[in-house]
Write a structure and sequence with these properties.
This protein has 693 residues and is mainly alpha-helical. It has helices at residues 4-9, 13-45, 52-105, 125-133, 135-173, 195-211, 218-231, 235-264, 269-286, 293-305, 313-316, 324-332, 340-356, 369-372, 379-387, 391-398, 401-410, 438-449, 465-481, 490-499, 501-509, 520-530, 534-553, 561-582, 608-631, 645-659, 669-688, and strands spanning 108-110, 116-118, 309-310, 322-323, 363-364, 416-421, 426-431. Helices cover 66% and strands 3% of the residues. The radius of gyration is 34 Å and the shape is globular. Residues 652-693 are annotated as: Disordered.
């Protein structure tokens, strides 16, 4: 293990000098090959020497001639490895030097051995006195010292790990790869000049032993972690490893790692999970170029291995076997950075497989929650979840109407076989998993909003044509589901509606149905279904409060009263949808205290005036909702504008602030928005097919 001092003081040019000598050696072997071919091997090929002795000599001479060729291959490979090592070490040494310089610039001292301490010499006497009496100041300095020490130590470890890779390669390059070529410990005819390929070979060897059920040492597990950590972004490493394992071997490897992590050796689960993360990252790197012949071959191999069944401890405990694609997506969920085309190709391949065999993913019992949710029993949903981290890919994939129709309407999502104990036997039936459509919901949200739903720091983005198309197509297909609307999609669709708040507000408030950007009957059905969940209902209304207030404050309005009317009609539309949702006997009454996050990232950033208005209107809407809870009044399945009176009055007040009023009488904007709310209720009843009450 090289030390900090050794790394910074070693003359790395010696590696290139040595590489030059190995190159020169290869040239000398080439000359000797020519001499041997002419002066020795050629004798046995002439007309003057014939018979058995000539044949025997020729065979021996041929082996020796080939060894001259192999010696050149090996010498050139060693030279290439040394140059590769030089490049790596120079880069890593530079990073260590940069870390040291940055620490010094941050008022640290770094010793010749790489030890970090604070440079107190830069403090004045007064600052030193203050430091001695300020415990928080002392703690902050100690924290900074530890941070810089960790930074420098990490840079040293990176060199150590690279050094291990070089050691592995130089040890392997001189090993005769063909023991049947007539030599014993001869030169390596298959010598490679890439360090990462030798590291991949070693990882493959350990992985195959794990696949065969052999026990590997802690040192070997550490070597797997190091190799993956050091080479996760190296294409040659990833492809060499995957070629060595093959698609089936890769699936078997991840299955064995899962067995060890979740069943056989749970004490060291973190080690196995780290290896899976490394394997996943290497897979992502290897498959980056989706137009390469390598990728096409890998995909074709996976199409066969992905539908095959594999014995695992986890599934075996349930008297089941896992499909290859289930294991593959489980593996991919450990990493990231996959090309969008890879996710689309795999999703299409899995959909093609399940169309041929609708029950292909069915497994006994649920795979959800903290204990069992690690396994991607529905790999299509799992792939969609991965896609959600790349909103552009999700948008591109779901903007295809054939895919959207299949996923939203045609697909059988019953992938779980539930067991019920009967009098004489266990009765099994298909059903939904507890985390049904989680991936689809995330992909829908990403595809429609352009934002990764798992990114807490994501910011609103302008909608692309694909984003807008997905909004409309999702409404279309989900409206067709009626009361079969999947509960797991309520929350994602509420966030989509909030994100597209201006469009949804325009649609809900349109007097001319032909001009509505989203068909009002479809919109009403989806709004009603969203309103069956208190949290989803809150997200929806919070987002539309933003859209309504923003509309009231919008500059350049041709007729400002339109924004007031639109706000009232949207409130009425929402109220009727909620009343219809509450009328469903399967929907529990909202009983939880109302809490709304007003700083949600999926809503456009507003000006201070608009945001203040949104907060005010939302507070008043919450007051209306809380009043319903406090009074515990029955809705009687009839919508009334007075159910949202405080919200309506707050909107009217915002309108007054923005546009003024000729009179202080309450029968101005307030009366107008009341009437508009009633109109919105009537329109909602009409598009729902319900007669006025």
């Amino acid at each position: 293990m090289p030390t900090y001092h050794e790394i910074l003081t070693t003359d790395l040019s010696a590696l290139n000098d040595s590489a030059d000598r190995w190159e020169s050696m290869a040239g000398k072997f080439e000359k000797q090959e020519g001499v041997y071919r002419d002066k020795v091997y050629g004798i046995s090929m002439g007309q003057t020497w014939e018979g058995l002795s000539a044949d025997a000599a020729n065979a021996t001479f041929k082996i020796t001639l080939k060894e001259f060729k192999n010696a050149q291959t090996e010498a050139k490979a060693v030279a290439s490895l040394l140059r590769d090592a030089h490049t790596q070490f120079v880069t890593l040494k530079g990073k260590l030097q940069t870390a040291r310089d940055e620490a010094i610039a941050a008022d640290m001292q770094v010793s010749d051995q790489g030890l970090v301490r604070y440079d107190y010499s830069k403090l004045s006497e007064g600052e030193k006195t203050a430091l001695r009496h300020d415990l928080d100041y002392q703690a902050s300095i100690s924290k900074a010292v530890r941070s810089w020490q960790d930074h420098i130590d990490q840079a040293v470890r990176a060199v150590t790990e690279a050094d291990d890779g070089v050691r592995i390669a130089l040890k392997a390059v001189v090993v005769d790869s063909n023991t049947n070529d007539g030599t014993e410990k001869g030169f390596n005819a298959d010598a490679k000049g890439d360090i990462e390929k030798y590291e991949a070979d070693e990882v493959r060897d350990i992985a195959l032993r794990i696949n065969h059920g052999e026990k590997v040492s802690g040192k070997e597990l550490s070597e797997l972690q190091r190799a993956f950590r050091d080479n996760g972004d190296d294409k040659a490493f990833g492809r060499t490893l995957l070629d060595g394992l093959g698609a089936r071997g890769t699936i078997q490897f991840t299955n064995r790692l899962n067995d060890l992590a979740h069943v056989r050796d749970t004490k060291h689960a973190g080690d196995y999970t780290a290896i899976e993360t490394g394997l996943s990252n290497s897979l992502a790197t290897a498959t980056k170029d989706t137009k390469s012949s390598w990728y096409k071959d890998w995909r074709a191999d996976m199409q066969k291995a992905g539908v095959a069944r594999y014995e695992t401890d986890s599934q075996g405990a349930r008297l089941d076997k896992a499909r290859g694609y289930q294991s593959l997506i489980t593996l991919m969920q450990h990493g990231g950075g996959y090309e969008g085309q890879v996710l689309q190709d795999l999703s299409d391949d899995m959909i093609e497989a399940e169309k041929k065999n609708p029950d292909i993913w069915d497994l006994k019992h649920e795979y959800a929650g903290k204990r069992d949710g690690w396994f991607a029993n529905d790999p299509v949903d799992g792939a969609l979840g991965l896609m959600s981290h790349d909103p552009k890919t999700a948008a591109d994939y779901l903007s295809d109407d054939h895919r959207m129709k299949y996923l939203m309407h045609d697909r059988d999502w019953n992938v779980t076989i539930h067991g019920t104990e009967a009098a004489k036997a266990t009765v099994y039936s298909q059903g939904l998993d507890a985390d049904d459509r989680v991936g689809l919901g995330a992909a829908l949200q990403a595809g429609a909003t352009g934002m990764d739903p798992s990114d807490e720091h994501a910011k609103y983005v302008e909608h692309s044509d694909d984003n807008k198309h997905i909004l409309k197509s999702s409404v279309k297909y989900l409206a067709d589901e009626g009361d079969k609307f999947p509960p797991s999609l309520r929350d994602p669709m509420a966030k989509v509606f909030a994100n597209h708040g201006s469009t949804i507000h325009e649609a809900m408030s349109s007097a001319n149905m032909a001009h509505s950007p989203v068909p009002q009957d479809e919109l009403y059905e989806v709004t009603k279904q969203i309103s069956k969940s208190q949290d989803s209902y809150a997200d929806l209304n919070s987002g539309l409060n933003h859209a309504m207030v923003n509309g009231v404050h919008e500059s350049g309005q041709q007729d400002p009263k339109d924004s007031l009317t639109r706000a009232g009609r949207t409130v009425g539309f929402l109220e009727q949808a909620r009343v219809d949702a509450a009328g469903d006997p399967e929907v529990a009454e909202f009983k939880s205290k109302w809490i709304v996050d007003k700083a949600v990232s999926y809503i456009p950033v507003a000006s201070d005036d608009v945001q203040a208005g949104v907060d005010y209107v939302t507070d008043k809407w919450l007051a209306d909702e809380q009043q319903k809870l406090d009074d515990k009044a029955a809705d009687e399945n009839v919508a009334h504008y007075e159910n949202r009176n405080e919200q309506l009055m707050a909107l009217a007040e915002e309108w007054r602030k923005s546009h003024g009023s000729d009179s202080s009488s309450e029968y101005g904007p307030e009366d107008a928005i009341d009437q508009a709310a009633t109109a919105g209720i009537e329109r909602a009843r009409g598009v729902s097919g319900e007669s006025a009450k």
